[in-house]
Each structure stands twice: as structure tokens, then as C-alpha cells.
UniProtKB/TrEMBL annotation:
Keywords: Lyase. GO terms for molecular function: hydro-lyase activity. This is 3-isopropylmalate/(R)-2-methylmalate dehydratase small subunit. The keyword Lyase applies. NCBIfam families: LEUD_arch (TIGR02087). Residues 57-111 form the Aconitase A/isopropylmalate dehydratase small subunit swivel domain. Signal peptide: none annotated. The keyword Phosphoprotein does not apply. InterPro entries: Aconitase/3IPM_dehydase_swvl, AconitaseA/IPMdHydase_ssu_swvl, LeuD, LeuD_type2/HacB/DmdB. It comes from the Bacteria. Belongs to the LeuD family. LeuD type 2 subfamily. The lineage of its organism: Bacteria, Pseudomonadati, Pseudomonadota, Betaproteobacteria, Burkholderiales.
Amino acid sequence: MNPFELNRIECRVRRFPDSVSTDYIIASSRKKETIDTDELKKYVFEDINPGFFYSIKPGDIVVGGTNFGCGSAMEIAVTVLLAAGIRIVIAESFARTFLRNALNNGLIALTTGTGALKEGDKIRLSGMSTGTVKVELADGDALVCDTIPPFMLDILERGGLVPYLKANKRFVD
């Protein structure tokens, strides 16, 4: 799914609490075995939601509360989410390094109040291509996410920082 090619995106909420650390996204013990994200994706969120990977469906998004991605600055926490098929995370706030790793790797991190979003809710996202994303709830209410600045939108549309730099001839192999 390329969210930037669609006007409206149908999603299913996969809900997580406040302060989900990078070690909850992928446990340190698993990284001792391998750093291959295709292998590690099976263990995403295993400490707080065992078997989560096997329940992921196309269009699932992760929704958290405050301070999502806190803890260590592990880039693999972002890349394992992408490997598992998660392209979008919505939270009330993100840890600074998680947010930077998300942008660098093309994971869309949206910020808004998430209290109304419950596990399994069907929602629609619109406005992704403009950077002004609206979360449309089943009951007709809507949440507006913080605007994605144009330069960040360009990076995300390319799939991350390295593809962006290559496309703009600002990166040497």
C-alpha cells in the first residue's frame, strides 16, 4: 500500500498504550539472534501482544498514546514494523529518535489525540498527499493530525531519506 497514491485509505486500528518502548516493538533478546527484519517481524510486539504479527491484515495501522517509541534509539524498531506490513503509526506523541527513524525509513508517523481510537475500529485517512491528514471515524467524527511539512512529505513519498536523496541527486552511492 502506498498511502500517497490514494485519496482515502481504509484502515483497521491496532491499539497500544502510552509509552510503548522500542524494546516492546522488538525485544532485545530477539536482536541477539538476528537483525534480519524478515525474521524479526514475526516477533513484533510479542511482549505486550503475543502473536500480533500473525493477526496483521493489509491496511492495519498502529495507534498509540503518548511517548510512542521511547527507550533506546533503535532504528530496527521502525524497520521491523515496516517489514511486518505496518506503514502508518498514529500517536499523541512520539519519542524524538523514533520519529526521526520513522521519517528516515519511510514509516508515516502521524500525531493527534488518539483517545477515541479503539482496537479494531475501522477508520479512513484522507489528505495524505497534501500533508493535512484527517482521521474519519465510523461515527462520523473526525480527528485532524498535525500537518506534515512539505519537505517531510517529499521524503515519505519517496520511501525514506536515502531514496529521497538518490532521486534528488544529493546522494552518492
